[in-house]
Amino acid sequence: MQTLTIEDELTIFTAADQKPRLLAFLNSADDLEINLAKVDEMDTAGLQLLILMKREAAQTGKKLRFVMHSKVVLDILELANLTSVFGDQVILAHNEE
Amino acid sequence: MSFDEEMREALQTFIIESLELLQDMEECLLSLEDGDDPTERVNAIFRAAHTIKGSSGLFGLDHIVSFTHVVESVLDALRDGKLGISPELVAALLPCCDHIALLIRNVVDGQLDADPAISAAGRELIDELQQFLQPGSVAEKAVTVSEKQDILEASGGGTMDSGNWHLSLRFGPDSLRDGMDPLSFIRYLSTLGSIAQLTTIAENMPIADQMDPETCYLGFEINFKSGAGKEEIEGVFEFVRETSTIRILPMDSEIDEFISLIKELPEDESFLGQLLVKSGALTKRELEDALNLQGEGDTEDGGQAAKSKQPIGEILVEQQVVQQPIVSAALDKQKQIKDNKARENQSIRVDAERLDILIDLIGELVISSAGVNLRALETRETGLLETTGEMMRLVEEVRDSALQLRMVPIGTTFSRFQRVVRDVSKELGKDIELIISGGDTEVDKSVVEKIGDPLMHLVRNSMDHGIETADLRRQRSKPARGSLRLNAYHASGSIVIEVSDDGGGLNRDRILEKAVERGLVQHNAVMSDQDVYALIFEPGFSTAQQVSNLSGRGVGMDVVKRNVTALRGRIEVESQIGMGTTMRIHLPLTLAIIDGFMVGVGKSTFVIPLDQILECVALPEDTGDREYVDLRGEVLPLIRLRPLFEIDCEPPRRENIVVVEYAGNKAGFIVDQLLGEFQTVIKPLSKLFAHIKGVAGSTILGSGKVALILDVPSLLEYVGSKNALVPPSLSQHSAQ
């Protein structure tokens, strides 16, 4: 199982750099985990990337989990009502804070 | 024009309109008990109150708003059938009309805030009204659009699971690059209410390779619960509006609310879009966009634009900014407004001054066309004569319709007395019925305005002193209910207004006795009934000890006479003891322009108003110096214009008599030549000549010469006084 920790913000400013990196990671294995603990800033562009990743993973039949959501990420997912859609465990996030 | 001036003008309009509305309200109120189906009238009263309340609000006249609101609530209950029409209710509402009028008049005097004394009076009225309102049932029903939010909130109350707005957001692709983060808008949105349900729509995102991470692909479907109006919600998306698709729709469950709101809108907007905006179902911006779209459609279609113009309602539904049922409701409302407008508002308000200018100009036109006509006659060219003839006919028509503009039926003035009669008869404890006839007789507006006061006096007087109490009436075997008649008709170029009652009539002997006592007439004077009755108009007669217990008229009658005289009118009294009295006021119609008849005396030309002329006959050669002729067995007094105007020249061999009539009196003017009909404008004489009797004004003839217009009434009076003066001087002689 591969794990990627995003250490940067997930915003419009970084989206262009993040996208190829994330896609490359998606292609690296079949069971993947992305650690979002260090995402301290996120906006719609970031959200789009996460949605894209999930969709790509589903289409290619890979497993992709987001873990260790930071509070910022959780807030966004809540707002977009996507937490349940993504179906990831989010309990850890609270400990994280 | 500065803002202040604009406001002042707007306020002026508000005041005029409000007073008119109050007048309508009063009339409708008075007719409520008539027995016909009152629905229309109740609606009219309600609309009037509602409009006044609304406009007062615009000017920040809160005290008027709060008072009118209560009145409106009562009317609303009446409209909904929660209250029945009763004399008590009408009696309670009438003073409220007065009170609103008082408040508005105070605004005229510059008093924009509540006056404590008046407010106290207002509170009493409100207390009285409150009795009609069952507690809580109707008082707080929101009828105005400004309160609509309450309705929306209330309707959604209690159900937390569903929102009342459905928002469908598709953010523009460049939103992110422009620094507009869609999520932050949604966050901001949640400050206005609560998001009941949100779905993120990512279907537009292309496959990974083609996906540009800096382009926004997201959309949101939001179920939103908020008391905010559509406009306010739309405001949230102000900055992304240009590039994004923002749809804000009421939830299906709310559609009924909007439909009922639309139905309750005041009927002053007739554009579909405006109706929807007012109800809150549509925002101004959405309307603008749709209108633009409609405009674009036009230009694309080019020549067929007019035909293919898509209805705005269709566009709105297509663009998904409102739902079909709401548009349908608005369409119905629009149709209703149009129908009502067609019935109610076929008049426009024009400044009286502009009308005067128009009439002046037409007067000049009449004069100069008369000149053209004269010149044309000299040329004897058939073609020219034909065209000038046609022109004269048109000018005549223009003149008539211009004068018609100033004419108003006297009925409105009359119907005002319904209220007076109702109030005064209550006050006096008499049962008096007002019968109005000839209400559609038309009079110049300026005359109508000035006749109100004298009429009021006469009406009050008749009720007070003329009509007896019910008991006395029964004793005299008359119906217990007294009747007072107001009548108007046209007669020989003047309008006649009659105020008659079926009361006790004037007591000739009492009046004469009183007059002798006061030294107004000699005790043995021989006077006609007319002359005796005329005494009641003498100043000072009124202050005499009450003749009134025998129905002698008194108070302020001299003022009535003065007012009528100021209008170039006359007043006469007809009375039969025990049967009643009729006061008859003769007033000139506007005589700004008249049809005249031109006559020549020597080298001078005079104009006699045509409508006062009965006939023209040749002067019998054997008349000599007599002051009368025998006209088919009738004695016709003669007035010789030659000596009267001191025209020095030999009379021609044959002279003519022009027989004139005014207010029932006839006389004959002796003139040299009859020159024919002539349309003319009265130019008032300057002040210098104002004291000259017998001349009503002057006019300029087509030839440029000046002609005097004869004032028939004053000339007749002159004849009358010449004859009447003789007996008193003789009687004086014998008394010495």
Kindly describe this structure:
Chain A is of the alpha/beta class and 97 residues long. Chain A has a single domain, classed as STAS domain (Transcription Regulator spoIIAA), CATH 3.30.750.24. Chain A contains five helices and three strands. A three-stranded parallel beta sheet of chain A has the order 1-2-3, with helices on one face. In chain A, helix 2 links the parallel strand 2 and strand 3. In chain A, helix 1 runs parallel beside helix 2. Chain A is globular and about 30 Å long. Chain A starts with a strand and ends with a helix. The C terminus of chain A is likely disordered. In chain B, the strands form five sheets. Chain B has a five-stranded mixed beta sheet. In chain B, strands 19-12-13-21-20 form a five-stranded mixed beta sheet. In chain B, a hairpin with a 2-residue loop joins strand 12 and strand 13. In chain B, helix 4 packs antiparallel against helix 5 and helix 9 packs across helix 10. Chain B is built from 24 helices and 21 strands. The longest helix of chain B is centred in the first third of the chain and has 29 residues. Chain B is elongated, with a radius of gyration of 37 Å. Chain B has five domains: 139 residues, Four Helix Bundle (Hemerythrin (Met), subunit A) (Up-down Bundle), CATH 1.20.120.160; 188 residues, no CATH class; 57 residues; 179 residues, Histidine kinase-like ATPase, C-terminal domain (Heat Shock Protein 90, 2-Layer Sandwich); 131 residues, SH3 Domains (SH3 type barrels, Roll), CATH 2.30.30.40. By secondary structure, chain B is α+β, with helices and mostly antiparallel strands. The N and C termini of chain B lie far apart (74 Å). The chains are: A alpha/beta (97), B alpha+beta (736). Chain A: InterPro entries: MlaB-like_STAS, MlaB_ABC_Transporter, STAS_dom, STAS_dom_sf. Chain A: It holds the Pfam family STAS_2. Chain A: This is STAS domain-containing protein.
